[in-house]
Amino acid sequence: MTEQHGPAAEYRIEELAHRSGTTVRTIRAYQDRGLLPKPERRGRANVYADAHLARLRQISDLLDRGYTLASIKDLLEAWDAGRGLSGVLGLVAEIDGPWTDEETGRISREELNAAFGGSPDEAAVADAVELGVLEPVPGSPEEFLVPSPQELAVAAELHSAGVPLPAISGHLRELRVQVEHIASRFLDFTTEHVFHQYFDHPPSDAEAEEAAGLVRRLRPLAQQTVDAELARAMRTLASRYLRHQLHSKVPERQAATEQVALPAATVQSVRDLVGPAGVAAFIAAATEREVNARRMDSLVSHADRTGPAGPADG
Predict the structure, then answer these.
(1) Distance of alpha carbon 231 from the chain centroid
(2) Which of 104, 102, 86 minimizes the C-alpha distance to 94?
(3) Same-domain status, 71 and 134
(4) Which of 22, 221, 230, 252 has its CA 20 to 30 A from that of 81?
(5) Structural domain of residue 213, as residue ranges?
């Protein structure tokens, strides 16, 4: 701080950069983009005030929340026009909040080893850290944060069932690509039909609060929809897969079938006799009986030709 007149603080650009945690070059770039008001000119020096420091901190906070400089400019213009940012920041906080009720857990390296067979596997641990399944605890190398204990428990169960750890990691990577596509489509869908009215202009506090309420209502719908559809798909595909596996194990001579055209009058006679539902079973049974009868006739004929078996001559 260089000068102070009464309660108002004044800063040269270098000190403003230091206090705001940014750089002189960035401050000048913000001025050029219209994000930061021009300083007051005092002779040959530019003087900045607390308002400039507060604006720089607002910009930094919005950048941390994922806003672009263009959208930040719109928001700040709305602020300057008399519309506050509290509603918007509340909406951002709602979106940034947890999208699951699951609570983060902790696990020691010893517990981790025990859960995955009892032997340490540093390559698998590194893979889990890269995937975010485990997070190192600063200053505690023998302990990890577990963002999703359920996900880690699934991995442990798969491994105990015989699935190698590299295969589990590879499956998770593949699954994430698919799930992120689903999440993206859900966001596109809800933006198009629900949230577009709030995003085509800087929302007022009332609009932002209304949008935050919609986020709270719609947040569980994505997971509920995916859960229901996954259950349906697993039921359908698992049944189909099981039938295929069982069919493939049946000997070819048993599994083979042949379509045979039967006279319509014959089929109608059988239908009149046993009803439509019993036609196939009746024809199959009749055919089997005829085959067995012919087999018996063949055996009898063979016995007649060779004579009855008697005691051997002495």
Answers:
(1) 15
(2) 86
(3) no
(4) 22
(5) 105-246
